[in-house]
Amino acid sequence: MKKIGFAIASGIFVASLPAIASAQSSVTLYGIIDTGIEVVSHANAQGDRIVRQPGITGSLPSRWGLRGQEDLGNGNSVLFVLENGFNVRGGDLGQGGRLFGRQAWVGIRGPYGTISLGRQYTMTYFALLDSDLIGPAIYGIGSLDAYLPNARSDNSIAYVNRFGGLSIGATWSFGRDSTGTGNSPGQGTCAGSVPGAFTQCRQWSAMVKYDAAHFGAAISYEEQRGGTGAAANFFDGIAPVPLTSSNDKDARLLVNGYLKIANARIGGGWLNRKVETIAAITPNVHSDLFYLGASYNVRPDVIAEAEVYRIVNAAQDARATLGTLRVTYLLSKRTAVYAQAAYLANSRNAAYSVSSGGGGTTPPKGVGQTGAMVGLRQMF
């Protein structure tokens, strides 16, 4: 599943320009349709539960896309990805109504790596893929930091290369939200640099990753600068921190790893987030997010997974612990049914929601939540 998710998520990457050659090209249509029914307790201030078809994700977010490649010879090729995110419940577009809100980029791959330009994932996303075993599911790491499964930016240049088991990558964005529709959850809107403020809305990321036959590790760093409309949301029920100046920063440092043992896989990591502003009236906020999970192939067609997450935000006096279980039954290589359940415990001043299925499930502060979902996923 990680290999499939990685291929769908990216297409990936670039470098040396070729001589004119006899070109061969291919274009692939692909996608995921994933939905189900969920129940969430304490989904409003009165403590009522909700039964619904979630709007955004199940075990994976729904999408369709076009991935293309043209072979230019001498080890060089041109790549592109156009990927649309949509919500099965109503058939509406995700990512603020963008046609290709998940990805829209073109690049060149050569002997020295891949360079790509457009709307694309940051290195935080790729560094997280192998160690976070539950992934971008409805009861996963996105419940505590909704940006992580949506770590992407507009106006970006990316470089990736691989040397045996070692992968390196970096991205640079001149303005992470060119349409003003909200690039990713919690960022607000931040269109780009303006005369006299080159760093406004700038975003950059870098990653070093190593993968061996039975283990792997990664480290990444990402920094977002503030600007008109920008904000930093900690998703804990407390108002987002405005990032009005190009000198304001929202930075994430991620360190993680994974281990394979026979039919089992173990993964875990630590994410440190620092939001620093120059305004004296706005306090700086730091948080630490820890996660540890395990996956086991009970049979070739049955996968059992469990993961625990813990976030500590001392500055806002908000803490939460989330535990998730998921069982997936593979009907075929492309179709699966699954059941997943989770419990989230909030500290007294926190109001994290167990479900990242499209909002509308925020509990009262200090109240825990239970979520459960059965779903169907088809990949094409």
Across the major sheet, the strand order is: 1-3-4-6-7-8-9-10-11-14-15-16-17-18-19-20
> How many strands, which pairing sense, and closed or not: the largest β-sheet?
16 strands, antiparallel, barrel
Helical stretch count? Answer: 2
Instruction: Report the mean per-residue pLDDT as an integer.
Output: 92
Please provide the count of β strands.
20
Q: What is the overall shape?
A: globular
What are the secondary-structure elements, in order, as H or E? Answer: HEEEEEEEHEEEEEEEEEEEEE
- CATH architectural label: Beta Barrel
Structural class designation: mainly beta
CATH class: Mainly Beta
Task: Tell me the count of domains.
Answer: 1
The span between the termini is 14 Å
Q: What Rg is obtained from the alpha carbons, in whole angstroms?
A: 20 Å
Q: In the CATH hierarchy, what is the superfamily?
A: Porin
Strand content: over 45%
- In the CATH scheme, what's the topology name? Porin
The unreliable regions are 1-21
Share of helical residues: under 10%
What does this protein look like?
- This protein has 380 residues and is mainly beta.
- The protein has a single domain, classed as Porin (Beta Barrel).
- The chain has helices at 2-9, 123-128; strands at residues 24-40, 50-52, 63-73, 76-87, 92-93, 103-110, 113-121, 152-163, 166-173, 203-211, 215-225, 231-232, 241-242, 249-261, 264-276, 285-299, 302-313, 318-330, 335-346, 369-379.
- A hairpin with a 2-residue loop joins strand 6 (103-110) and strand 7 (113-121).
- The longest helix is centred in the first third of the chain and has 8 residues, at 2-9.
- It is globular and about 65 Å long.
